[in-house]
Design a protein that fits this description.
117 residues, alpha+beta, 21% strand
Amino acid sequence: MTEGDEVAVLGVRVRLGAGATVDDVRALKTWLEREEPLEELLSARHLRIEEQSGTDGTRGRLGPDLELVLKLLGDVVTVAALTEYTARAVKTWTNNRRRLQGGDPDPQIRPLDPDGE
């Protein structure tokens, strides 16, 4: 690989919809960091979780969606497996949040687009 070559970023995007707050994103990030096997991937430095504002430019919204991006830093797990782990953890977090606070942040989980992240 030469200087300037871009490496495709593999991972999963968890987007919280219009009903979510910054606190929801931080709470979900904390939840994911403590969920096995995500916790194991993080502690082995094979995964990074980043908070971001959605950047897809969807019109008709008051503001960008809030999201977490889980980036794989090695070939230790497939994107499909990471998506499954993440979906289970997000479902549990969403059920707990709904039970304790009401409302629904309407999470969407999908693999990162390797070309546009």
